[in-house]
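Weekly modeling sync, notes
Attendees: AB, CL, MP (scribe)

Item 1: holo prediction request
CL wants a bound-state model with iron/sulfur cluster before deciding which constructs to order. AB pointed out that an apo prediction alone won't tell us much about the pocket. Agreed to run with the ligand included and paste results into these notes for async review.

Input as submitted:
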Amino acid sequence: MIDRSTFATRVALYHTLGCKLNFAETSAVAQIMAQRGFRSAAKGEVPDVIVVNTCSVTELADKKCRQTIRSLHRRYPDAPILVTGCYAQLKSEEVAGIEGVAIVAGSNQKLQLAQYLDEWMQTHQPISIVPEAKSITEFQPSCARGDRTRYFLKVQDGCDYWCTYCTIPKARGRSRSGSIQDLCQQAQQAAEAGGKEIVITGVNIGDFGKGRPDTFLDLIRALDEVDGIERYRISSIEPNLLTDEIIDWCAQSRAFMPHFHIPLQSGSDQVLKLMHRHYDTALFREKIMRIRERIPDAFIGVDLIVGARGETPQLFAESKAFVESLPISRLHVFPYSERPGTRALEIDYAVPIEEKRKRDQAMLRVSDAKLKAFSEQFIGAVRPVLIERGHGKSMAGFTDNYLRVNLDLPLDFDNRIVNVRLDSLNPENLEFNGTHIP
Ligand code: SF4
């Protein structure tokens, strides 16, 4: 048994589930732990402490969190497990009951985990600090390097939209955001640490500045002026908050990439109403057409839920026809998953599991066709690519307009932006094979 009052080696293992925001926040936790002498576990190294940052976007996500915690405990039975994130916030008692869990910290307590660990080391008594989400008002910043070359800058947290299928407002609290000055400073620090690309993250980032005079457009204008950052991507923005001004400004900005990610969720107005979304399909189409007109080569990714409550076969057919008619680049398809405590459960019509699976497959086929058609336009084109290590020995990267390319280059090209010719499209994974053009 290790002596938990000292942690002689001070090695911490971090495990993150869920969204990019969670990844950014885990890195912020790791930075604080590092200030206390904890270094991240190398592959295969036995940790003294384990931090699990959880997700609760679906029932399946909850299950995955439980499985992850249990399996980490089986592997490292002596390491106390610190659990935070949306699942810890929403099901704190359930989490506290899992063997090996020493600390449960709510979604606004992530940056205090190191402090709670100090307390736990004194007493070895379980700690659970999970304030009610509606009491969360402060914004906790984080700007962190992802696994590879890009940084994730959290600019906003929480959500006030209350879509009927979603528990995120319950897990993360009300919408709040950082100050433009602080966020630019964090971007500056990322540039000084060698960062070239920043992904702007948050829960509902178009809501940035709510309750203040500054807006998301003010933020991206200011970030664009930060020296050294050569690329920004907006992780995801609600269509009703993606104003024409934002699109027009991105079209002529220095560093905002031709790349948008917009949640549609359904291509049926009736289903959108049941979901309590804040737009209709006409507005969605308008936004897509404006992007295509101003930034013709932009990659446009679209989120879609299939098999939501109320989505009858006829409404699904409507949704599919709508999506097929849009000049978008790819769909991110999510089969609807029931969430206890959501208003969606009051909607009568529930889609059978087998039917949900069929709809998922049908929309994935639409997505593949969209991605193929979008990508084929660029065969032979030369685009700037931020190079990172691919799988094995190969190098890879994304073009400005988010096309994935694999190529042969020496390892010292990592984190460099170079021109690459997109030679051919691999029909299996729809990724390009490319050649560096010096
Ligand atoms: S906009 Fe809707 S789906 Fe997105 S986090 Fe807010 S409530 Fe959830």
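Recorded for review: Residues 11-131 form a domain with the Rossmann fold fold (CATH 3.40.50.12160).
Action items: CL to compare against the apo run; MP to circulate these notes.
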